[in-house]
Design a protein that fits this description.
This protein is an alpha/beta fold and 148 residues long. 35% of the residues lie in helices and 20% in strands. It has 5 helices and 5 strands. A 5-stranded parallel sheet has the order 3-2-1-4-5.
Length: 148
Amino acid sequence: MKKKKVKKSEVEHIVKERNYEPRLETHALIVNNLELEPVKKVLDIGCGLGELLEVIERRKGDEKIEKFGVDIDQENVDVCKENLEGDFRLLDVDKELLPFEDNSFDLVCVIGIVEHVENPSRLAREALRVSRDNAVFMTPTLSRPRRL
């Protein structure tokens, strides 16, 4: 099955509405380079306003996915709860373990938060623990912070 590439126009409205223009490249890289066919349950660690989960769900089309997100910011969690179907929780990944069982998710995304935590190794172990198949980690480079 040939992968359909995500078009900028498919996600642009989500990002522009929320003034997250730089995230378009990140979303496209994830959606264009992962096999989303078997993905039914997704966890976004550091989910922000939930835009990545929206992009993944839109790419899946009529097939709904179970969306889960954790974030350190209560306002972000509230926005997700208001705008998305799913389970969104306030969580400080530096102080708390992920409240999910081993191998719970088809896809775990850790986008743009590794550089903000005190213990990235612990975060990586936790993300991999709850992932059944795929875990995606992305962070800006130190020399070119606007590039992934």
